[in-house]
Each structure stands twice: as C-alpha cells, then as structure tokens.
Amino acid sequence: MLKKLFKRSGNEASVENQQAKPDVSPEKKSKKTAQSSQSKKARSQSAKPKKPAPKPWSLDEFQVPAVEGKSRFHDFDLPDDVMHAIADLNFQYCSEIQAATLEESLEGKDMIGKAQTGTGKTAAFLISIITDLVDYPLDYKRSKGVPRALIVAPTRELALQIASDADELGKYCNLSTVALVGGMDYDKQRKKLANRPVDILVATPGRLIDFIRSGDVDLGDVEVLVLDEADRMLSMGFIPDVRTIIRHTPRKGDRQTLLYSATFTDDIMNLARQWTVDAKVVEIAPEKKSTDSVKQLVYLVSREDKYKLLRNFMQLNQLERVIVFGNRRDETRRLAERLQKDGLAAALMSGEIAQQKRLRTLEEFRTGKINILVATDVAGRGIHVDGVSHVINYALPEDPDDYVHRIGRTGRAGSTGTSISFATEDDAFLIPDIEAEAGVKMECVYPDPNLLEAVE
C-alpha cells in the first residue's frame, strides 16, 4: 500500500511538473544541448586563445657559409628533420671525425674510427644512424623489443649520454630511443621496451645480455651496430659479453658495423677485423693527443699537503664547476666526505653509488646545485657537462690513457679549461708516461706557500 501511495505521489508530482514546464521535443532538446555545448566551447575558446600551429621549418632558416677546408652538415644531403635538430644544437661545421666518416657511413659501409673524447664521434654515428632510419622506413608492423640500431657502450653514464644525444638529434623524426643499463630498475626499462617498437637501443653489455636471455630483446633485425669506446670495453673485461651480443645480431655483411676507439692496439684491430667487412679505417691523430684548449699544470706536493692544496686552491680561485679525480673508490669517498664536512658543495660519483642517485648528482652538477664532483675514472667517462672550468687529478692515473680522458671533461665545445695534477712522492714517476701519451710537456711547479696553509 505504501508503495502504491509513493508511486501515485510521484506520478502527481510528475503531472504538476509537466503542467508547469512546457513539453520539449527530443529534436529541440538535442538542438538546445548542441547550442549549449557550442556556447560553452565558444566561451572556453575566448577565455583561452588557441595556440597557433608551429610554423613549418625550412632549411633556408639555417644558413652556414661555405669555408675552404671545412665541411658543413649541409654538404651531406641530410633529411630536413635531422638538419632542424642540428640547427637547434648550433652545429655548423663538422669536426674532423665527422667530416672523415659521415659520407661513407651514410653509404652503409663499415667503419673503424679512432678519435679522442670530445671530438664529436657520438654525433657522427648518431647522425648517420638517424638518417638511415628516416630515409629507409620499414613498411610492415614491427615487433616490440626488436631494435633497428644497437649502440653498445662500456659505462652507464656514457650509454645514458648517448641516448640523450640521440633524443636531441632525432627529436623531429618520431624515433624511439631506449637505454638499458645496470643499476636501474629492470622492470621500468622493460616497460619502456613494451611502449612502442624501439628504433635505437643503447646499452651496457651486462644489462643487454640480461634482456636477451629473458626474451625481452631480439637483435635479429639490427641494421646498424655501434661499438663505442672499444678500448675501454677491452680493458674492463667486457669483450666476452660483446662477443655474445654480436652472435645475436645478423652476420657481418648483413649489418653495418661502426667501431670507435681512442686507441688502436693490436687487440682492438684484431677484434675489428673479426666484426667488420672491408671497413674504412679513420684515424684522427692530432699533433697533441690532449686538447690545445686545456692548460695543463702539475703541482709537486707532499702526500700530507694534498688536501690543504686542494681546499685552498678551490677557495682562492672560487671555482664554479670542477671535477676532482681519484684512482680508487675509497679515496674518492673519503675526499668527498671531507669536502662536504668543510662546507663545500661536493658530491661523489663512483661505481658504488646507485645509478638513480648518480643521475641526480649529475643533474645537480649541471644546474649548479653542487659545484664539485669527486669521481673515479669509470664514472667519469660518461660525464659530458658544459662549463667545467677545471679538472683536478688528486691522484695521477696509473693508466696514461685515463689522463687524456680526464682532461677531456674540460675545454669542450670550443671553450678553454685547466687541468691541475697533484704529483707526490708516491706517483711522480708516472709523469713521463703521461706526457708521452698526452703529447705535451707539462709544467711542474711547487705551490705557493699560501696554498699550503692549514685548513680552518
């Protein structure tokens, strides 16, 4: 009974409402709703003006005059989308390694290149790879985790830097770049592979093998293989892993192989011959192996006075961005902690630091939140930060080649820099070998007494 009364009351209310409001046909309701929607849309558009479509870019906007003896990127018939990214980066004339390798690498030939760090070899092989991927798109649906180009690098930092450079150079080409490195979340990297087909895969050897064994990566369709810093991979014991990786790629001759190294030892050349076919050998050997843009100085100092010299030198010169190199993890850890205790904005960069923290530290160094980076050689290889005014060798490297790589962190991109080395009774004997490798006679001096005053 209550249900009936309730229903009846509802019906009576419905009748009264119908009498109060004239009936609206479905067509009118639809029209009214559409008008209301259009009105809201118009108000929304008037409140927030629509952004104009980006203006199409033209190569005419990137004028670089021809200069005798110099090669321009304009001279290589690169796609406009690639040239647009090159223009954004203000790359005008090719470096020696770029001028010497681009033409034949763009033709698909194998290449063995020798060049020191900071000479532009990364851009050389990336421009070639991206151009190839743009000029020869695939006309079938691609599977996930099957890259078209593979770049293998010895360290996490270097691999991440290459991936970042690939994103910049390929940002107008709708390409996918994925980095696989150890020390970072495996599942997150696997999800990136699953997002979309990957064009360029950049990886360190151990982590790449993990993904191959899990079935998340298939290298069977790799068109271009790049082995960067082959000498470092050899010295770090990665060659067995690299052999395993190469066995999963197409046979040599069915892929293009580009191998880059800072040195051409017999071991490197033997490996290169195994992995390439009729490769062009390009050797960029400046008269001085260390860059002319870096002033190099050696302070002769006792072991007990090293820290005082470092602390006072940085304080007196008000250095804004400096990298301090040590040889061992424990040495760099103690040094970073002591600098922090003295109130300096210093941070540690070594293999014992978790990868995510290393990335944060590197970003803080770039932005100026910290201005002193204390690093080991392995971690230092991947540091590509503009504006590093000084590199300080707190301990001379036992491998002279490491010295060349260390000072390559400063004096980059046309700027000047300074390398300061501390030589004590423990390691001064290394100076002649370092000079021979660097191709320069270094000035050795005793520090001024004010640089050896006790640290307060």
Structure description:
This protein is of the alpha/beta class and 456 residues long. Helices cover 42% and strands 14% of the residues. The model is unreliable at 1-26, 28-37 and 39-44 (pLDDT under 50). The strands form 2 sheets. It has a 7-stranded parallel β-sheet, sandwiched between helices. The protein has a 7-stranded parallel β-sheet with strand order 10-11-9-12-13-8-14, with helices on both faces. It folds into 2 domains: 59-283, 3-Layer(aba) Sandwich (Rossmann fold); 294-452, P-loop containing nucleotide triphosphate hydrolases (Rossmann fold, 3-Layer(aba) Sandwich), CATH 3.40.50.300. Helix 4 (96-106) runs parallel beside helix 5 and helix 5 (121-135) crosses helix 6 (156-169). It starts with a helix and ends in an 11-residue tail after the last strand. The protein is globular and about 70 Å long. It is built from 17 helices and 14 strands.
Question: What is the CATH class of the largest domain?
Answer: Alpha Beta
Which superfamily, in CATH terms, is the homologous superfamily of the largest domain? P-loop containing nucleotide triphosphate hydrolases
Quaternary structure state of the chains depicted:
single chain
For the terminal residues, how far apart are their CA atoms? 95 Å
Q: Tell me roughly what share of residues is in helical segments.
A: 40-55%
> How many domains in all?
2
Query: Which geometry do the CA atoms define?
Result: globular
CATH architecture of the largest domain: 3-Layer(aba) Sandwich
The CATH topology assignment of the largest domain is Rossmann fold
Low-confidence stretches: 1-26, 28-37, 39-44
**Structural class by sheet pairing and helices:** alpha/beta
Number of helices: 17
Q: The biggest beta sheet, please?
A: 7 strands, parallel
Strand order of the largest sheet: 3-4-2-5-6-1-7
Rg result: 30 Å
Strand portion: 5-15%
Q: What is the overall pLDDT average?
A: 84
The total strand number stands at 14
